[in-house]
Amino acid sequence: MCRLALKTADIPFSPYEVLNGMEAMQEGYDGSGLGLLLRGVSFEDYKYKKEEQVILSGIAHTEAAVRRLQRLMEERGFEQDYDHRFKVNADLIESKDRYQYIVRVYKKPEGLTEKELEERLMQTRLFLRRNGEEHGNDLTVFSFWPDVVTIKEVGWPLEVGDALGLNDDRIKARVVMAQGRQNTNYGINLYACHPFFIQGIATMTNGENTAFIPIKEWLEGKNIPGYMGYQSDSEVFAHILHYVTKKLDLPLAAYKHVITPLKSEELDAHPQGDFLKGLRTSCRRLIIDGPNAVIGTLPDETCMLAMDAKKLRPATVGGRPGAWAIASEMCGVEALVPDRDPTLDFQPMREHTVIIPPERKELQIWSQFDQFTLSQAA
Amino acid sequence: MVSVRSVYTQPSSLTFSDLPWIIEHREDRCTLCGQCTAVCPKQAIYLTYRRQRVPKLDILKKKRGNEYRHFVGIRQNTEVDKMCIGCGMCSSVCPNEAIGPVPNPNEHRSRFHMDQKGDSWKRGGRRNAPGKTILDRLSFGRISMLTDPALDAGRHEFNTNTILGRVLPPEEYIRRKAAGEWIPPTREIFPFVIGSMSFGGLSPNMWLGLLQGVAYCNEVLGIPVVMATGEGGCPPWVLKSPFLKYIILQIASGYFGWDEIIRAIPEMQCDPAAIEIKYGQGAKPGDGGLLMWFKVSKLIARLRGVPEGVDLPSPPVHQTLYSIEESVMKMIQTLSMAFNFRVPVYPKISGSTSAKSVLNNLVRNPYASGLLIDGIDGGTGAAYNVSMDATGYPIASNLRECYQELVAQGRQNEIPIFAAGGVGKNGNVTQNGMALIMLGASGVHIGKYIMQACAGCLGNELGRCNVCNVGICPKGITSQNEKLFRRLDPDDVAQRVADTFSSIQTEMKKIMAPLGRSQSLPIGMSDALTIDDADAAERLGIKYAC
After folding, report:
1. What is the per-residue pLDDT across A65-77, written as a single tens digit (0 to 9) for each?
2. B424, B459 in Cβ contact below 8 A?
3. Which of A39, A122, B73, B428 is exposed most, by the fewest CB atoms within 10 A?
4. Which residues of A touch B164 (CB under 8 A)?
5. Any idea what DSSP says for residue A243?
């Protein structure tokens, strides 16, 4: 099964730390791939400004793809400010068709509203992805967003980290999501690797999504750009989070009510039961069945963890003010933030959403049975 | 040899080997109690005195002669209107197992003579197509083997309910909720619904038993079962009772019973579960309801507002309306308004190649609460044999194409499709129902299965019994004759309703657990289904497995 680790800290740290945390959780895992998503990025040799710049992450599999990428981005009016190069040791990489790992910083287009910018960035990512697919998959694009770097590769996580020289501190981040992927029934495809990303929202999940087909069919039917791909059954978790927070404009606390709604008799006694019952009915096709632990991050560096309603996948959160970790195993938390009080570690139950706000002072443990702010419909 | 002309014969003269059922009688066991002949609903058998010649040859006296043995035996009637229907009531009352019908494997010459007096063969029952249905052949193959712990059908909590009613897209729901606008009514119900069987079609005891059982399921077992009335209204005491919330009231083209219903509205303690507008029925598409005169008793006549003892054939279409689009629109709106927009209103149509057009029409109607599609294997209380045998459209592919149409439009959560017609035909009710749910149904309606499981209906796919139309139901399920329906104890029916739904719910869990589903009904989970027929797999958009 997949191993998940997330660390969030006030002081930027190397993603290699999180890979070491993954190593602690190696039991029961076949190590067929690694996905990393970094937020609050800082480069050793470049001063990155997230208000002014956006980062494109992906892999160019041929020289032609790199040149085409250059041209396409110029044509679409994106001016490149910085091209981060990993010190790659190709011998440690299983796949032999990796010409260049792309982490490029572009100037943010000007004169757009926030919504327009978000749309523009996503459309550009989707365009590049399609373009790569049209050229025999010679270009893979993971994210194109301010302050987000995504790395995905096949292989044992720590070895991938060594191969990309992630322990040289040239790249650091305040939030790192890492997933050690278990290759399941969907074949090795870089797009099937967590964390999944859409318009600033990212999630990773362990376990199997048994309700995948009905959820996928419903999301596809919404005809919302970006609700595509689905090489992995876990990609829908990211899109549901996107749908709930961006399309429905509901608070983060509503996510849990959509994916794992309370039972009717529980809603009867809930202060917002009437609204939530209707929401449950309207979003019925988005109910997940697990077993899953969903770990997500938002553009403001908020981190969250929620379980399926049966809580058949464990996950633990622990830490101290300034540094927190979420991991699919307790030993992962221990490896990531050893200087914490382990007695305060928390394993959420079926009704909980754990939220680590961007200030990182304390955990918020929000229960579905609690009332939440609902400006529109309350 | 006796001359042929002296043998009494007509074109329709039959012998017992021409009939679908042959009575086997064992004289050595018969006590001549006469119970079998008394109970036979068709008068297919009668006691006869018989004489048997016993040749006698006295060799010593060189004398030849005859002696005659007299005995009493059972003889089978061979007239078409009295031929054995195989119900087996004779064997059930026989103290010595001396008598019983056996199916005749020969071709049935009687089939050519069912239209006596120019009246085409009418009957009740089913299509009489034995063997596995396509639903029986679907299996649940997406076993959740990738991850453990697996689900435990016995210990985990399962949500086995579904939604009946129009569901708004989430954006629209939130907007209307904030603006305080109308939200279409929905009901959380058990996905196996007792399908439309009318008060009139069913005996009062059967109806009472079903309602008692449904109330028990809801109030004691916590299984929110609902039942539909069929055409013909609902007894006034039910309309004014708190049990109305478990009832889907049907309005059909004869509008029978709706005077009583409309008059009762001001006195209703609660709203009905839903209103079903019947446009068609899978067993006899294009045909209206039919209650034959045998069953129009005093009570039924009062309820329906008609004289006693007359045939009640509903027209095939809703009168005064000119197209189904207009009809659906007007009727849905009118009925929604009658119940102050608090009750889901949905049409029931027979399975058809044109079902998708009706569905698309409903999608655009904001008051339409769902669609029930009834396939060719559905049953009926009375219809022409030819309609039952040859008219109709199978439910599986019909449902699937309708669901896929909704998926293509992203509307699959908005209009729930209910499927009916042959669910549980061979006893596999939960398997059939869950297969339809995974093909896209929000739930299924079951009628024949309920009659068989809860009241002991004797019908089967070999044409057994099938006399629901003439009011002689030997079990008292579909008769208005007090002598017959008092055989059926409503309490026993209620007990069986509770048994049946408890068992369906357990079996649902046993199907859902290995698929890793427990939080919501696996509607449209087509990846779970497999079939051993490549063509069917392709048609249904599921996996072929062999």
Report:
1. 999 999 999 999 9
2. no
3. B73
4. none
5. I
